[in-house]
Design goal:
five-stranded mixed β-barrel; 9 strands; globular; mainly beta; four-stranded antiparallel beta sheet; OB fold (Dihydrolipoamide Acetyltransferase, E2P); 2 domains; single chain
């Protein structure tokens, strides 16, 4: 009996990607009828039920709210430089983008609501040892 690979079930497009030069792209979708931007990417507009088109979203955002998770970071590079905890936050993407829940890079003292943050690549290793990168946001230098 011949064994075949299981079919790929997910139809969702990539949520973000990283270039070799460090540039981050956040992939979302835009409602064709309403113009509303969504993240993660949608297969249909959740408000109208209509079609959506792929959209690249802003990689800069305003910090809306944040909290600090006081537990060890399991990745390779702790977002705050120490392994004792890390920040998580809600950011509103610029240019009319959606609100996202993200990992925040930096010490808790550097998180100020209303400040500008920029998307960054954060190296991470999965529980089975596979290296990958995840999306994080860091306070803007400007």
């Amino acid at each position: 009996m011949e064994t075949t690979e299981p079919a790929q079930r997910s139809k969702s497009p990539a949520q973000y990607s990283f270039d070799d030069d460090g540039a981050v792209s956040i992939h979302g979708s835009q409602s064709d009828s309403l113009g509303t931007l969504y993240w993660p990417p949608r297969l249909r507009c959740p408000r109208s039920g209509g079609t959506v088109s792929p959209a690249l979203l802003s990689t800069t955002a305003t910090l809306y709210s944040w909290s600090y998770v006081a537990m060890p970071w399991r990745g390779d590079v702790p977002p705050n430089g120490e392994a004792d905890g890390y920040g998580v936050g809600l950011v509103d993407l610029d240019d009319g983008g959606p609100r996202m829940s993200v990992v925040l890079m930096g010490a808790a003292e550097s998180f100020v609501i209303g400040e500008t943050f920029e998307a960054r690549e954060l190296p991470f290793t999965t529980i089975d040892g596979n290296p990958q990168s995840i999306l994080a946001f860091e306070r803007s230098a400007s």
